[in-house]
Design goal:
A hairpin with a 2-residue loop joins strand 3 and strand 4. 73% of the residues lie in helices and 2% in strands. It is globular, with a radius of gyration of 23 Å. It is mostly helical and 514 residues long. The chain folds into two domains: 211 residues, Growth Hormone, Chain: A (Up-down Bundle), CATH 1.20.1250.20; 229 residues, Growth Hormone, Chain: A (Up-down Bundle). Strands 1-2 form a two-stranded antiparallel ribbon. It has 15 helices and four strands.
């Protein structure tokens, strides 16, 4: 195998760029729910719906951004355009927070800012990680450690973001939210600037050729592409038509009269769920797939379905658990009260600490032939998620509304959830790479992110059931009268998914080995 000491400098440029992008995203996320409720005076259900739509679309638009980069712009231009678009989006959130007392203007600026963040992320997210592997030759055994270093950039950014943005924005005074959004904006500008200045010098393959430039197509290649495009037109039209039809069906209020069929329709949620259904069907019905390939793709779909329940519960960190940290957690350490946003730094800190331990555990079990299969690891992750919510549910059992509990309960939940994430998230990505036919690898990775998109939208919906004084809430007939009821909802949901996936894991393992 080819090995050279050290890593190319381009890796560290990508590390810095990704670090600042994650700083921007998680800095804004740490404040967003609190801003809507405390400054714009949204109720928790409305704030949760906006949050779910935003985070859901963030994982939907990379399908479009990846397509444009592959066919027209290349990775480099897409990253710069995406980064600057997101910086502008953060700046509009800053302006929104500057005029928060003029609610109509503030809401308009906020939604424009969210739109730019969603669009920019679509160009940025699918392109930067793909460039890491291209810095090395195919047989270079430094790739694994390169992706590990790159992933550290994600965790450094997501650790620093709530600390910095929370310090300046989550002060208890609504007029200070703007400084947190401005810090997120500056972080994104720093990342974009560093990448733009140094990309031509350092983002190169081992032979010195630039990586991620716009694709160059010869006349013959263009003709082949045109022929291929004509063949796929009918399937594209079928996909768009099916998505539109399903979006309309999901948006119908079946209990309303004909004049109000689309009253209060959640068009964004319907689009996300419709795309999540249509895309997998379009892929699995491709006539070029043989039986073995379909079985393996089926495993990806089944795992992706269960992953929706994991992330829907896990992503309460930026939604309902932020309310809990702000309103019902005693955050005093001596004479200092820790900002609620700081809790969102706990997970990345724990990831960095525990990841090497989990890697060692899997290696230890693997050498003895008792390492759990990938589906079983996923089931364990879901089980740990349920255990985390069970832990905090008993922490809040029988407490009166408004009474604050120790930080131990929320910290314990994040610790258990981090362990669950380490069982599920890295294993899932690896599984998609292993099982995908080469010609469908990008599309199936898109399906995997679609499940995350649906999960984030679902997370926003579930967060809306967070108990509020004087408001009666129930989920599918299950009454939610207090925090114990709310947290037990996630115990039942993720626990049931864990049991079912565990029972299916043997069958799934056989399907993977076909």
């Amino acid at each position: 195998m080819n090995q050279t000491k050290g890593h190319p400098k381009g890796l560290y440029l990508l590390f810095v760029t990704e670090m600042w992008e994650r700083f921007s995203y998680y800095g804004m996320r740490a404040l967003f729910m609190l801003y809507m409720v405390q400054a714009l005076l949204f109720d928790k259900e409305m704030a949760s719906q906006v949050y779910g739509s935003y985070t859901g679309l963030v994982y939907l638009t990379p399908l479009i951004g990846g397509y444009i980069a592959d066919r027209y712009w290349g990775n480099r231009r897409s990253i710069v355009v995406g980064a600057l678009t997101m910086a502008l989006g953060q700046f509009l959130l800053f302006l929104s927070a500057c005029y928060f007392q003029e609610v109509a203007l503030a809401k308009y600026l906020m939604f424009c800012g969210l739109g730019l963040l969603i669009l920019g992320n679509g160009f940025f997210k699918p392109n930067i990680s793909t460039m890491v592997g291209r810095l090395y030759t195919p047989d270079d055994n430094r790739k694994d450690s390169a992706f590990t270093i790159f992933y550290m950039g994600v965790n450094v950014g997501s650790t620093l973001a709530p600390l910095v943005c929370g310090l300046v924005g989550n002060t208890g005074h609504p007029e200070d939210f703007k400084w947190g959004f401005l810090a997120a904006c500056i972080g994104m500008i720093l990342g974009a600037t560093a990448f733009q200045i140094f990309k031509n010098k350092y983002i190169c393959d081992p032979d010195g050729n630039p990586v991620g430039v716009a694709p160059q197509r010869s006349a013959s290649t263009a003709q082949q592409s045109e022929t291929s495009s004509q063949k796929s037109t009918s399937r594209t039209l079928l996909m768009l038509g099916s998505t539109l039809l399903l979006t309309l069906l999901f948006s119908i209020n079946w209990n309303a009269d004909s004049a109000h069929l689309f009253a209060d329709a959640d068009w964004i949620g319907s689009l996300i769920y419709a795309t999540t259904v249509v895309m997998p069907v379009i892929i699995i019905t491709d006539h070029s797939l043989n039986r073995h390939e379909k079985l393996r793709i089926g495993v990806i779909y089944i795992i992706a379905f269960f992953v929706i329940f994991f992330w829907a519960a896990y992503e309460q960190a930026g939604a309902s658990l932020t309310f809990f940290a702000d309103e019902q957690t005693d955050r005093h350490i001596g004479g200092w009260e820790m900002p609620a946003a700081y809790f969102q730094s706990f997970n990345p800190i724990m990831i960095v600490t525990l990841a090497p331990i989990f890697a060692a555990v899997w290696s230890f079990l693997g050498k003895r032939g008792i390492e759990p299969s990938s589906p079983r690891k996923q089931a364990i992750g879901l089980g740990l998620l349920a255990l985390g919510y069970l832990f905090i549910a008993f922490g809040v059992k029988d407490i009166e509304p408004g009474v604050k509990v120790s930080m131990v309960w929320l910290t314990g939940l994040y610790l258990i959830h981090t362990m669950g994430e380490l069982c599920l998230a890295p294993i899932g990505l690896s599984l998609v790479y292993k099982l995908s036919p080469a010609r469908f690898s990008s599309l199936l990775m898109g399906v995997w992110y679609l499940s995350t998109s649906a999960a984030n939208k679902f997370a926003g919906l579930l967060s809306g059931y967070y108990p509020e004084h004087g408001v009666s809430k129930s989920f599918m007939g299950y009454p939610i009268e207090n925090l114990f009821d709310f947290f037990m909802l996630f115990v039942f949901m993720s626990g049931s998914a864990a049991v079912i996936l565990f029972l299916l894991s043997g069958k799934l393992k056989k399907m993977m080995e076909v």
